[in-house]
Amino acid sequence: MHDGVISHLHILFIPGQARDNRETADFISSTDVPVTLHAPYHVHGVNPCEEWTFQAPAWFGKGSFTDYAMAETLEAADRLDAPLVVVHAGTFTTGTPDSAIERFSTFTDRWSDPRFVLENLPVTFRGARMLGNTVAELAVLTSGTQFGICLDFSHLYCSSVSLILPFEDMLSGFGHLPVKYHHLTKSGPGGEKDEHRGLDDPHGELPLKEVFRWIRARPDVPTTLEYKKGGAYNRRQAEIFTALLQGA
Question: In whole angstroms, what is the distance from residue 132 CA to residue 90 CA?
Answer without folding.
Answer: 8
